[in-house]
Fold each of these.
Amino acid sequence: MEFGVLGPLYVRVNGATTAPSAPKLRNVLAMLLVHAGQVVPVPSLVRDLWDEDPPVSGLTTLQTYILNLRKMFSAVTGLTTAEVARDVLVTRAGGYALAAEAGVLDVHRYQRLVTSGREALARGDDAAGVRDLNEALLLWRGPALADVPAGRVLESRRRQLEESRLAAFEYLVDVELRLGMYREVLAELAALTVENPLHEGLHGQYMWALHLSGRRAQALQVFHRLRGALVAGLGLEPGPQVQRLHQAVLNADTAFEPRFTVRRPAVAAPATAFGGGRSY
């Protein structure tokens, strides 16, 4: 089986794609997928489904959702529900777990590619870094879990994935700018700065790409748009890096060497407890 959470939720077997249609069933499946290989405690599942106001029948309803998911896995794999309960969606002390070896999850491949890409950049292999980071970002089919109703637990994980996506993009653009690929990054940066109006790193990269493409006036407009958003929203001025970049644009200085990211390898922390590990 293949599972996807980097966009709309899906389960794929032999090329056929499926997913539960009921919103709460999708929520339970998504919770299990983003914590694949870990035990997801029953209280966390209940909280994500009903926040702080679960129905009296909440535990029984959750058990029904688990049973329905096992039936779905049984239907698409040909395994019996007993085999699914033993090898795929297993009951553990205090909760449930999707077995790590049950299938291939797109987010796991994404995390491996981001790690290998950042390690390549850290050892000076820009070509390998660009290849792996680009391949990682191509796995995204839209916002993480775009069609899944998320409670507080799942929403925190979804935001973590989105932040990781932005960070990977920043690393990729940083090396592309150093390689002289100024125009190639403009379209994506234009969209991302609109979507993230307070993100100084993306705005700095956009300013620099515009400046090196001979579009100083637009680069200055990006700075003033960022500054206006920061002052109005947070009462803050742009940070020193963006300020120095702004001065370089004003001075028509193309020799300035901004550093948008720190070139060092990412080391994943072991996920030893539910919610306690960082995979990126």
Amino acid sequence: MLVDATLIAAAFVAGTLNAVAGGGSFLTLPALVFAGVPAVSANATGTLALLPGYLSAAWGFRGDTQPPPGLSMRTLVVLSLIGGSTGALLLLLTPDATFRRVVPWLLLLATLLFVLAPRLTASRQAGARSPAVARVSVLAVTIYGGYFNGGLGILLLALFGLLGQTRLLAANGLKNQVSALLTLIAVALYAWGGLIAWREAAIMAGAALLGGYLGARGARRLPSAWLRAGIVATGLTMSLLFFLR
């Protein structure tokens, strides 16, 4: 009972966190490892459990979603599906020990990019808004999301800022839509590869769904500066925790 309650609580908070900041996988992954699920399988299972949260958050932000300059929604859909499937296939080939080593570095990179995004956007507008650069950047981030998913929201918000999307709510809505798309294709491949712990995923999915929707609605009431501070704090805290593991 204690293990199941921990999984439910982690999924609810993670769904809320993903809707407003990202980094929810850093709650679900330790909870699943605590429940006895191996690390790579825990990553895949946590990603599946958070999928309903991504979907509900995307619905909650549906009126605010707007792609950055130079990209259409159709292009983002295609890139999300290609990147998510590529990253998932890479995870299937990654040993547990390798996976554990790269996780904290990836999250730290995502957090630093988000911190630097406003300055980089101001100083590199022409390059950031090039359609070719935008497509390659989105593809790279979606591959990351299909591989790990932890910190994906932080990295997507940083990227959309670099590409010229200055409205945080619009970037948040787009972040959740892209996350949902790439996660859909990724979890299908995780299931095909036998990485999903189905019982634990079922326990967590409903809580993540509720957390994602409530988080999306609550984000509208928070000032942008508070959201940015929360995103940075989440990224740095989770990076430190994984370095210390």
Amino acid sequence: MTVVRNRLALAALAVLALLVIAAVFSPLLAPDDPAKQQLLARLTPPAWEGGGSLAHPLGTDQLGRDVLSRVIYGSRVSLLVGVGAALLAGVVGAVCGLFAGFRGGWPDRILMRFADIQLAFPSLLLALAIVGFLGSGLWNVVLVLGFTGWVAYARVVRSEVLSLRTRDYVTQARATGVTDLTIMRRHLLPNVLPHLATIATLHIAAAIVAEASLSYLGLGVPKETVTWGSMLADGQLYLGTSWWVAVFPGLALMLTSLAINITGDALRDVADPKAYRR
């Protein structure tokens, strides 16, 4: 089944397209400054409820800041952290997996044992420990989430390379004097790229949720930067009286993660049609 025929995947792609548009064009789409405080309009309900205002379609928070504007601007951080962490982890994991699977021997054993040791630690707790050591900050969060996510890429790439390195075209390339680096770059890497793309989509969703968790705990992006996690932390005290402060960023986080996971499943089905038919 192709992605075009999968209506659920098309809907997920539409949600992701809206996320990218919101992130890129935040200053044009946001109806107000996300940091602007209007204490006289604090905790204004959404426009469709009594006391709501069209000036604030999704209401305002405890400081009178427009919730819709903050949700739109929060997509920037989520997209940057998710894509940045996936790229970093993908590069590190692909290099380690290619080298371990192709060379074998002691390099393979050392890298895989190191990966096993990291898998023994819960990823979020490991991220908390590293962020606590490095300090909060956008790029520190990207670095931490990239470091804690490389293992999945490395293990998948290694398993694929172990089967690919015995193929005839690899043996022939070796016999003609082609260097190991060229074989990995020209013959092995293109064959594992579809699997890397599938893992990357799922890792983006996991990184977005992890960033929101770190921001919720106050250990992620600085408070002056709008994130969905910090909005959830600010709104938890108002769930009983002003539900919109926490519900809308939570919905944005949920829909984004769900859309990315559905897209990842669709890419997996395209990369491995036999698995889909099973």
